[in-house]
Design brief:
Elements (H helix, E strand, L loop, with lengths): L18 H7 L5 H20 L2 E2 L8 E5 L5 E5 L6 E2 L1
Antiparallel strand pairs: 1-4, 2-3
């Protein structure tokens, strides 16, 4: 957003940190949690590829995580600096 003097960047607050840190902290990162993360990642990539966007820098540090009240993990992809259309 912008006004006559400034630009404003509005971002989402994700309090859980990145996937790499979550795996290190969570001593019981189970196969079910990993499957849930991979499932969400595949949905996100399928959506992006449907729009002809390629991320090109997927790694645990670029996957932000948030734990829901019931302990499930929700992910968000970040760092689209190397992304490109194909």
């Amino acid at each position: 957003m912008e006004d006559s003097r400034c630009y404003y960047i509005i971002m989402e607050l994700i309090t859980g940190g990145n996937l790499f840190d979550m795996i290190k902290q969570d001593r019981q990162f189970t196969e079910m949690k990993a499957a849930n993360v991979i499932k969400q990642l595949m949905f996100a990539l399928n959506y992006m590829h449907g729009l002809n966007i390629m991320h090109r820098d997927l790694k645990p540090e670029n996957i932000m995580c948030e734990k829901t009240e019931d302990g499930e993990v929700t992910i968000k992809l970040t760092d689209f600096g190397f992304a490109t259309y194909f």
